[in-house]
Amino acid sequence: MNQSVTRGNFDDWMMPVYAPAPFIPVRGEGSRLWDQQGKEYIDFAGGIAVNALGHAHPAMVQALTEQAGKFWHTGNGYSNEPVLKLAKQLIDATFADKIFFCNSGAEANEAALKLARKYAHDKFGPQKSGIVAFKNAFHGRTLFTVSAGGQPSYSQDFAPLPPQIQHAIYNDIDSARALINDDTCAVIVEPVQGEGGVVPATPAFLQELRALCDKHNAVLIFDEVQTGVGRTGELYAYMHYGVTPDVLSTAKALGGGFPIGALLARDEFARVMTVGTHGTTYGGNPLACAVAGVVFGMINTHEVLNGVKQRHQWFTERLTAINAKFALFDDIRGMGLLIGCVLKAEYAGKAKQISQLAAENGLMVLIAGANVVRFAPALIISEEEVKTGLDRFASTCERFVAGVTS
């Protein structure tokens, strides 16, 4: 029986942990979506930096369909060809020697933190358990990862939280140095804080974190859930900085929209995760890995990665021109196709209002906190889609300013 559904059904049937838009997308192609009424939207949200190849990419559809016709799932008592091929792709393209697959960025970060604790306990003893993270970070919604994330509003209602996690100030190496010591087992950091406002790390900050971790035998974890798989114009953001982590989490764009996450590690650290120490029923699912293998292979090319850098220029040049006209933003920052527009003080707290107006104008954008409008479109978005979307954003800014000043 076909059942018609509306946005109102969300409020009736779903736990109220989200506040979704008033429209329901039903079809996508490239960087365009259409809702139930047939209205078209340009997608600059990208499923929160997930839809790296846009919607319904033929190569992804083919990979999923072909694997679906073979088999879907066996569990981790067996291996499969797609998971092994994807692991080799990741190893060949990065610093990693070993891979663990899971289903999300939160799970990848959970595994990273567990690995770091076990490595430290095995090698140095149980006293080496401290974790240093950063204020305004976001690492996921499990109890462990939400505790590591430096945003109390996401964690305070779920106390008591896992202990021995401290938060330094991002991009402030003196703040980090004051917390990192011989009892620190791990430092976890985003090369660009995404949810925290699209704030890139400075090279000196990450370089000194590497040095501190080496000095104190702490595992350096890069959370590249949002920055990974081409988002910044390099395959992974660590490649911009000349700083190599010990462990790296990746998800979001890895599956191009099919849920998958992974933990990448050097062999020295990976070997502590022996049989039975960690696992997940769906991790390494052949459907997810078949799709991710195609996505990763398509993105890991000079053409696509250089194209991200070119598209960054398209966005920032036009956003700068829009800002010159409407004077909305204090800063336009970010890397590649992870861009944040920081609202001026007089418009503080109104990023959500701008995103809602944008949707009315046929444009999907994100926010990163209350004061930053965020863009994370497909890495292969066309020049025409960029132009049309930014035209709609300019119209949105005009409407917003007129509404605020009227």
Going across the major beta sheet, what is the strand order?
4-12-11-10-7-5-6
Distance between the termini: 50 Å
General shape: globular
Q: Could you report the average pLDDT, rounded to the nearest whole number?
A: 97
In what range is the share of β-strand residues?
A: 15-25%
Q: SS-based structural class?
A: alpha/beta
Number of strands: 17
Number of helices, where a helix is a run of at least 4 consecutive DSSP H or I residues: 15
What value does the Rg take, in angstroms?
21 Å
pLDDT under 50 segments (min length 5)? none
- The helix fraction, in percent, is 40-55%
The biggest beta sheet, please? Answer: 7 strands, mixed
Kindly describe this structure:
The protein has 15 helices and 17 strands. It has 406 residues and is of the alpha/beta class. A seven-stranded mixed β-sheet has the order 4-12-11-10-7-5-6, sandwiched between helices. A hairpin with a 2-residue loop joins strand 13 (329-335) and strand 14 (338-343). Helix 3 packs antiparallel against helix 12, helix 4 packs parallel to helix 12 (286-299) and helix 13 runs parallel beside helix 15. The chain starts with 6 loop residues before the first helix and ends with a helix.
